[in-house]
Amino acid sequence: MRIHIALAVALFVVFGIGVFDSGGFMKSFRKVSVRESVSSVPSSTPSRGEQAKVVLTIGSETLYGELADTVAKRTQGLSGKENLPENEGMLFIFDAPNFVSFWMKDMNFPIDIVWINEEKQIIGWEENVDPNTYPATFSPKEEIVYVLEVNAGWIQRHDIQIGQAIAF
């Protein structure tokens, strides 16, 4: 009986604090999800199989993006998709500024990769990255927090510039 009580207490301490704690002890163990930090994402949860969407603005251009805000979504990215509609993209959100590498594994169409820093400014890009470049990797020259993948040629067609702010 004592073992059962001790086990119950231990389980409550380990799991119960996380449920009932409002930011004290467990705060240091809790990672804030990217979705919580993006204010423009609708509060409703997407249905199964549907990606969370965000409206992005760069200058006078509006773009609709799927969010890649978890490890699984960032790993999958646009791989396996047959195409990407014009003025749509995928916004990758990382937990902290970092150097990341992207590749074209299982991609079916070329893309532009836009590197965006913590201040939501465009710091660079890779244009017309073809699926045949796999296994080569592409990385920013500075730390980034966001990466936007769009159809190849989108940067040029919309006259995107280094230093432009992106809002979402």
Fold and architecture overview:
Pfam families: DUF192. This is DUF192 domain-containing protein. With 168 residues, the protein is an alpha+beta fold. It folds into two domains: 1-30, no CATH class; 35-167, Protein of unknown function DUF192 (Jelly Rolls). Helix content is 20%, strand content 29%. It has helices at 2-20, 34-37, 71-76, 154-157, and strands at residues 53-58, 61-68, 88-98, 111-116, 122-129, 144-151, 166-167. It has a seven-stranded mixed sheet with strand order 5-4-6-3-2-1-7. It starts with a helix and ends with a strand.
Summarize the structure.
It holds the Pfam family DUF192. The protein is of the alpha+beta class and 168 residues long. It folds into two domains: 1-30, no CATH class; 35-167, Protein of unknown function DUF192 (Jelly Rolls, Sandwich).
Keywords:
168 residues, alpha+beta, Jelly Rolls, seven-stranded mixed β-sheet, DUF192 domain-containing protein, Saro_0823-like_sf
Overall outline = globular
Low-pLDDT residue spans: 1-48
**Whole-number total of structural domains:** 2
Q: Give the termini separation.
A: 56 Å
Strand order of the largest sheet: 5-4-6-3-2-1-7
Helix content: 10-25%
Strand content: 25-35%
What is the CATH architecture assignment of the largest domain? Sandwich
Number of helices: 4
Q: Superfamily at the CATH H level of the largest domain? A: Protein of unknown function DUF192
Rg is 20 Å
Overall residue-averaged pLDDT value: 78
Strand runs, count: 7
CATH topology-level name of the largest domain: Jelly Rolls
Pfam families: DUF192
Protein name: DUF192 domain-containing protein
